[in-house]
Design a protein that fits this description.
Blueprint lengths: L2 H28 L1 H7 L2 H23 L7 H10 L2 H15 L3 H28 L2 H22 L23 H30 L9 H49 L5 H10 L6 H10 L7 H30 L6 H11 L2 H22 L1
Helix pairs in contact: 1-4, 1-5, 1-12, 2-12, 3-4, 3-5, 3-7, 5-6, 5-12, 6-7, 6-9, 6-11, 8-11, 8-12, 8-13, 8-14, 9-10, 9-11, 9-13, 9-14
């Protein structure tokens, strides 16, 4: 695979991302207020309707003689419904509303585990049965999920206090919550910027020398990547009561960054799998940071803040891919692993706001203890 073909593949990926997010981002942001008033059902129903309509458009394209441009209608409907950002904002809000603070970290990590492992294994198994079976199964599951969201999903906010959101009570000395929210969102953005683009570049890195993997080795690599979701979930399951949110998140950041740094020097396959083994907790930070964010918010603000978060993360995803796919072809002639060292450095920045929030919470606790005495 030469530099020209790699550049063309990466450019196509970046162009697809720009088109994919051009409608989803403004729609998700504009519906945050509606979710605050009516609950996360707004996010879930709207995004699922767009997903189902988009898949029906694909079915029509597969079984009817329509031009290729017809697929743009499906992308348009999916984007106008908010797409992935709106759906995951609703999932995060619903998971936070349906769990106690002490169990919220585990709940959100379970959601991430189901997305990464269960969804991946199910789709891979169904794909072996044929693309038509996979598409029809996806439509059926999406329809069931949509009907559940419309008719069975209740507004969990009715069981919560109707007091004013905590972030609006600055006159009562709770302005630290606003700073914490900003810092936690900054940490997530920094981690995403360093991780997402490098992971996509890594899929091309293994296909060229010195690794030069074939389809079998590439399958092993994908399995090792999926195993990170499982190992991360097991780690959270065993350690979240012992370490706490901050220590868990920092453990995940160190695990991800150390493995990515080793990946930069992967000239043999065993080095790649060693790096993946060290990255066993790489999937811990994002769901744990979402749990930490929800604990600094009033439930009535979940829709607006999680919607804003997903918009920011979608932009970060786009920028990370464009950034790393632009740099990677330029480094092939002198050090093709440079992108992974850069990813390590950017992701480590996310530890700074996390430690700041942790120190601030400790200072606030001491102030409260002094005031009580």
């Amino acid at each position: 695979m030469d530099i020209a073909s790699i550049s063309l593949s990466l450019a196509g990926c970046s162009d697809w991302l720009v088109k994919n997010y051009s409608f989803e981002i403004p729609v998700c942001q504009s519906n945050g207020g509606h979710s605050d008033r009516h609950g996360p059902k707004v996010f879930l129903v709207a995004s699922q309707m767009g997903s189902v309509l988009g898949m029906f458009i694909l079915v029509i394209f597969m079984y009817c003689e329509v031009p290729l441009e017809f697929l743009y209608l499906g992308s348009l409907l999916h984007g106008l419904s908010g797409g992935g950002p709106m759906f995951w904002a609703g999932v995060a809000a619903l998971a936070s509303l349906s769990s106690e603070q002490g169990k919220r970290t585990l709940k959100l990590n379970i959601v991430d585990f189901c997305f990464g492992v269960v969804g991946g294994l199910l789709s891979g198994y169904m794909y072996q049965m044929g693309s038509s079976i996979l598409l029809l199964t996806a439509i059926l599951i999406s329809l069931v999920a949509l009907l559940y969201s419309v008719f069975a999903l209740t507004d969990l906010r009715h069981s919560l206090s109707e007091s004013e959101p905590l972030l609006a009570e600055s006159e009562n000395g709770k302005t630290m919550d606003r700073v914490s929210v900003g810092m936690l969102m900054t940490a997530m953005v920094s981690f995403m910027l360093g991780m997402v683009g490098a992971e996509n570049v890594l899929q091309l890195y293994v296909l060229k020398p010195p690794l030069s993997w074939d389809s079998v080795w590439a399958g092993y690599g994908r399995a090792a990547t999926s195993a990170m979701y499982l190992s991360s979930f097991i780690g959270v399951l065993g350690l979240f009561k012992v370490l706490g949110d901050t220590a868990l998140t920092l453990l995940g950041i160190v695990s991800n960054c150390t493995g990515m740094a080793i990946m930069a020097f992967a000239v043999e396959s065993w080095v790649y799998f060693l790096a993946r083994g060290i990255m066993m907790f790489a999937c811990v930070p994002m769901p744990t940071l979402r749990a930490m964010l929800s604990k600094n918010l009033h439930p009535q603000q979940y829709g607006r803040v999680f919607g804003l978060l997903q918009v920011v993360l979608a932009v970060s995803d786009l920028l990370s891919n464009v950034f790393f796919t632009s740099i990677y072809p330029l480094t092939l002639g002198w050090f093709s692993g440079f992108c992974f060292l850069l990813s390590c450095a950017i992701s480590y920045i996310s530890a700074v706001p996390i430690m700041y929030v942790n120190l601030s919470l400790k200072d606030n606790s001491k102030i409260i203890e002094v005031g009580e005495t």
